[in-house]
Amino acid sequence: MMLWGIFSALAVAAALFMVLPLFGAKTEMANRQAGSVSILADQLREVDADHERGLISAAEAQAARVEIKRRLLALSRLPETKRMDGIKSGQALLVVVALAVPATAGALYASLGSPQMPSMTFADREDERTQRVEIADLTERLLERLKNDPNGGPTEGWMLLAQTYMRMERYSDAAAAIANVTERKDVTSAILSQYAEALIAAEEGIVTPDARTVIARARQMDPANPAASYYEAIALDQAGDSKEAHDLLLARLDAATGSESWVELFVAQANRIGDTLGRDVVRLTSIAPMDAAPSSGPTEDDMAAAAEMSQSERDTFIRSMVDRLANRLESAPDDLDGWLRLADAYQVLGDTQKAQVAYGKAERLAQTLPNDDPRRQTIREALTGPEQ
Amino acid sequence: MIPEIGQFALALALMIALVQSILPVLGAARGNLLWMRSARASSIAQLVFIGIAFLALTRSFIVSDFTVANVVENSHSLKPMLYKVAGTWGSHEGSLLLWVLILAAFGAGVALLGSNIPDALKARTLSVQAWISTGFLSFLILTSNPFERIFPPPLDGNDLNPLLQDVGLAMHPPLLYFGYVGFSIVFSFAVAALIEGRVDAAWARRVRPWTLAAWMSLTAGIALGSWWAYYELGWGGWWFWDPVENVSFMPWLLGTALLHSAIVTEKRDAFKSWTILLAILTFSLSLLGTFIVRSGLLTSVHAFAVDPERGLYILGLLGVSIGGSLGLYAWRAPAMEGGGLFAPISREAGLLVNNLLLGAATGTVLFGTLYPLFMEAVVGTKISVGPPFFNAAFIPMMLPLVVVMGFGPFLSWKRADLKGIFQRLRFVAVLAGLSGLAVWYLTEGGPVLAYLSVAIAVWLLLATLREWTTRIRLFEVPFADAMRRARNMPRSSHGMTLAHAGLAVAMLGFIGSSAWKSEEIVFVQPGAEIAIAGFDVRFDGVERVQGPNYVADRGTLTVTRDGDPVTILYPERRFYLVAQSSTTESAIRSTLAGDLYASLAEPASEDTAASGAWTLRILYEPLVNFIWIGAAMLVLGGGLSLSDRRLRVGAPRRAITPAAQATPAE
């Protein structure tokens, strides 16, 4: 609210500046001839003064006076300045301008600003930093425990560790953690696709032959694993087989019901590759249904892992999931449902401020949706009054 | 919240600038006084709102608000406070915000202080200023928004380039921009005069304080920049003919020509066309500089072509403003009535030579700066045009200019008696020649050009002093009388003397530190001794020290001369952890006679570092401080001239209340 108060004050100030001339002194127009004459007269006086001080000789002073007087004469021969309008005319235009300036500036701001986003000073974010240190600490302890486990540590434990490393952007560490379990009997296709993700991230997006092998294994175990298909498509694209990559993505999208969380990512990737091939753009609306109840984040595996944790570990885990989503959205901010999920998660965690920001991001994206889209309703309610 | 206030204030400023671009100039054309006078309020409003935006950004830097993308990119929570503040203008976006802030400050300055300017001229001038403002504000908002937000915010920032963590450099952009952008108001005055179709002595007098203020800031900015390069880069050089330096030097050269040309317009009603053209070209070069530095063209022509949005926008602005103003000049300038006639030997002719030589020198620098860019763009080969070209092309043009400078102030307006002047300057010429010979006798080695240059610099210094003593008739009349005459003399003529002498002093610095520099680059073990320029320097070793956001290797050098201790130098190599880069901190023993300059280069290899062996660079630069003393004299001279009350006698309304006027330096 305070922000809008300040905006209004600025807008009013701008409008006042624009109408200020109306209250100005109603002096006559300063004529340029009169101004020039007074300057030349001053020059004449200066010549006299210089002469009195003995800076110039009498002859020099005389010559200078003649020159200045000649200029004065030339000035008086100039045509009269044309008649000026009265001070009253044109007042209406100033009033119009005074209204137009704040209005247009407001419109410009609407396309640029993020009014719902708060300032977060470094000093205010002590908690966040402590939390990050705690997470790093917990991660270390988890790693120690898993390493010292005579049975090699539970698979869920290693996966939790890997996910935390991913969120901390320590991709090689994440890959190393998953590598401990990929040869076990209980390995799933999901674990393998996460392994592939970590390997690719560690190489800054390049699909290495190792990663390619892992992807193949994951697809073999579960041909329906969307993550594995996604990375296979990226691998194909990087290998120069863009057509196959595009076909693969389209085939998966055709089989989708539209409510899956991965659909948007697939559409974006398909369009990126399709663009280089000159193929038609895939529309999200042709796949995704309009009743977007925000789907929840963690997968079944994640939930299974979470079930075996202590309370503090579970909190950390949930936070790490949320942060991961936030990080992903930072790099791919055009994901409306993603922002809604993130906002929802923050709401659940009690972080209202961050939830509002995420809703704000969603609102910007939702502007292109039809007015009766339920998601718009959700956003409106969240932004205008969570108290009601 | 604060960044959003800045964003909104910026949007308001753009809209106000848009109104100011149209309304006052329309009022001037239609004779509507109300619309003309709206320029005053809107100029002030622009300054207020851009000021709010600037403060909002500064605040975000001070409190390390990492929801602002610009703060993330250019700051870090561990950075010392001074550099957090300086980070505001350290980035592309922030420096452009400073650019428009200074633009608005000059506009508001004319609106507030220019009460003696006729309404129509003021309205047109401020409208032209608003054209520039609209162009750059829209550039800022549309392509380089400084208030871009980031969510979720990263926990800490990416630091500022540690090379730029330096007091001299923190103050360098504001001063440089003050000069650069200050010429905008002179440009606006010139374009307004072209629209009106009249330039006269009164116009020149009104413009003069603004030209002086911009010129002084630019001089100070360039000098500070060169001082920074001297003690921070660790090479011991103070000017590299680097494109970034050149683009600030070109407006200075033409600005200097403009300053002198405007004097002729003010006092003799002549050189009108020259003055207007110089005003347009000086600011055009400022714009060109902004374009070259801000478009990424310098890094590589290729990089510019890949992401051309920003570069093309400025290029468009450049084309419109330079093309438009020169077009207007071509159309309207011939209509301006010519000024008084003058003989080939006269003050006017001297200043004409000044204009021509400075113009040609600017053209030379421009050629040397743009040629490599053209080559890369057209032919595709990267070439570099370095000091050899500039030294060979630029210096021979400057030396005759300095010779003429010695005569100039003796010349009287309209026609001058050259024989009389020669007679007065006989001794000065002999002394200057002798000083060149004396330096030749005292030193060994050194190019002939250096001895000639010394003689010319001494000539300028003595001729300038001789002119001053002639003017106050020192040694001709009793001393008290002479002092009385000195007090009665307008401050602007003292300013001229000081500035001309300053150039002579700076020249001695240029020559001394380049022609007679001694340099030793040695690979040393602790205990090693190096002899340089009469000093004995002993290397005592390197120790590791901890700074606020860096660790440093600090060397200890004991300096003696003929066995007597002189000083101990501590050059450092700093490593900035967050930015992962290192800088050199030279240690300098500064005296008027010259600087003993030591810097520590990296150890040759890890093994040698362990054994304590380092590469040292030791220089002795004679007279190098004369450069900055001379630059300070130039700025002070400009200040004296600016404070001259004669600039204000044109204000009839102000003359009634002389007590209200600030009279500094009295």
Automatic annotation (TrEMBL), chain B:
BP term (GO), one: cytochrome complex assembly
UniProt keyword list: Cell inner membrane, Cell membrane, Cytochrome c-type biogenesis, Lyase, Membrane, Transmembrane, Transmembrane helix
Provenance organism: Pelagivirga sediminicola
Function: Required for the biogenesis of c-type cytochromes. Possible subunit of a heme lyase.
Record's GO cellular component terms: plasma membrane
Keyword Membrane: yes
Keyword Lyase: yes
Cytochrome c-type biogenesis protein CcmF C-terminal domain location: 315-645
Family annotation (NCBIfam families): nrfE, PRK10369.1
Similarity-based family: Belongs to the CcmF/CycK/Ccl1/NrfE/CcsA family.
Protein name as it appears in the record: Heme lyase NrfEFG subunit NrfE
Its membrane topology: Multi-pass membrane protein
Annotated compartments: Cell inner membrane
Membrane-spanning intervals of the chain: 6-29, 41-62, 96-114, 126-147, 175-195, 207-229, 249-265, 274-292, 312-331, 352-374, 394-413, 425-442, 448-465, 495-516, 623-643
Entry's Gene Ontology molecular function annotations: heme binding; heme transmembrane transporter activity; lyase activity
Cytochrome c assembly protein domain mapped to chain residues: 89-296
Location (main, coarse): membrane
Source lineage: Bacteria, Pseudomonadati, Pseudomonadota, Alphaproteobacteria, Rhodobacterales
